[in-house]
Amino acid sequence: MPPSPGSTASLRSANQQRVVGVLRAGGTVSQADIARQTGLAPATVSNIVRQLTNAGLVEVEPGSGRRGTTVELARAAGLVAGIDFGHSHVAVAIGDLTGQLIVEQRRRIDSGHAYASGLDQADVMVDALLAAEGLERSAVRTIGLGLPAPMTNGVVRTSAILPGWVGVNAQTAAQEALGAVVHTENDANLGALAEHRQGVGRGHDSSVFVKVSSGVGAGIVLNDQIFHGHGGTAGEIGHLTLDENGPVCRCGSRGCLEAYTSTVALQGMMQLQLPNAGFDDIVAEARNGNVSALRALEDAGLHLGWAIASIVNLLNPAIVVVGGDMARAGALLLEPARIGLRRHALDAVASTPVLSSELGERASLVGAVLIAAERTTVLTD
């Protein structure tokens, strides 16, 4: 039975959680800093650290001088895992309860795979990573799972990117396959969380992460929290209509952003000039001065900027971060995107920074580890 509100036990538990919260966010922290950040008396912090140390949840390193004794969450407090599925990859990482990655691996996967085989491969990768580090599977307390699809209550609603997952309750299926508590999220939301906590969005209270790969989606962070919307599908900017007479999109509409700005759209535009060229081949040609490749990337960037203008007009985020495969084009994509933003945004928000992802292709995987860590209860009554 949990302690009653206002009781001594309830206060003690709340104070312990405050200390653990500081350790999650700060990694290795001095006891003096913990007292300062929590507002607890130094003696109270010292007693809580002693209790947590005896329980094997934290490790203490004696110090001297102004910094004094430092504290960090112990490996014995538990581990988490992150899994990120993309159009043609699956990435897996093991992390600690502060959200820091310990080891990770990325493999190619057939885009038409059935969900069960995808989860089986991820399960094998988790075991391999743990074995390589000499860690036990039982230490993994929570798993974060990212998918490039809108989800409601864990169910994948639509996805031409991973058709083998449509209609599947990804959370239930993953928990059965992986034998742990699983939290599912859209991959753009995870990328947004990662960039906000550990990437280029650090220090801002709001940010938008736009992932541009074979599809286009956005993760929105407002007041330091992921914004999901009523049904969990906020951020589907790939299906903003830019031209109602434009090309047919996979969603059934016409002229969507995704039909102009995605790796698939770019390769389609360049099919005659560079038959069978991959995205990186097109970027390389553009950097070598190929005018067709340069124009295709410029057009993609201008359309992206148009969509970003809609976001900043509506939400006024502090920063917009562009990630996904298309971000590898760097300034070839981002400079025209900034021009598109200035053309279509209100003057008050037209100067919103549009920057490349700091975490690159790892953003969604880092976010999967972070969300697993943040949703793991370190202390139990």
Task: Describe the overall structure.
With 381 residues, the chain is α/β, with parallel strands linked by helices. It folds into three domains: 8-76, Winged helix-like DNA-binding domain superfamily/Winged helix DNA-binding domain (Arc Repressor Mutant, subunit A); 78-192 and 368-374, ATPase, nucleotide binding domain (Nucleotidyltransferase, domain 5, 2-Layer Sandwich); 201-357, Nucleotidyltransferase, domain 5 (2-Layer Sandwich). 39% of the residues lie in helices and 19% in strands. A hairpin with a 3-residue loop joins strand 11 and strand 12 (216-222). It is globular, with a radius of gyration of 23 Å. Mean pLDDT is 91; it is low at 1-5.
What is the name of the CATH topology of the largest domain? Nucleotidyltransferase, domain 5
Please estimate the helix content. Answer: 25-40%
How many domains, in number, for the residues? 3
Please provide the count of β strands: 15
* Inertia-based shape: globular
Oligomer: single chain
Q: Which stretches of 5+ consecutive residues score pLDDT under 50?
A: 1-5
Distance between the termini: 8 Å
Biggest sheet features: 5 strands, mixed
Which secondary structure elements does this structure contain, and how are they paired or packed?
Blueprint: H1 8-26, E1 29-30, H2 31-38, H3 42-54, E2 58-61, E3 70-73, E4 79-85, E5 89-96, E6 101-108, H4 115-133, E7 140-147, E8 151-152, E9 155-156, H5 170-178, E10 181-186, H6 187-198, E11 207-212, E12 216-222, E13 225-226, H7 263-269, H8 279-287, H9 291-315, E14 320-323, H10 331-344, E15 354-356, H11 363-374
Helix pairs in contact: 1-2, 2-3, 4-5, 6-11, 8-9, 9-10
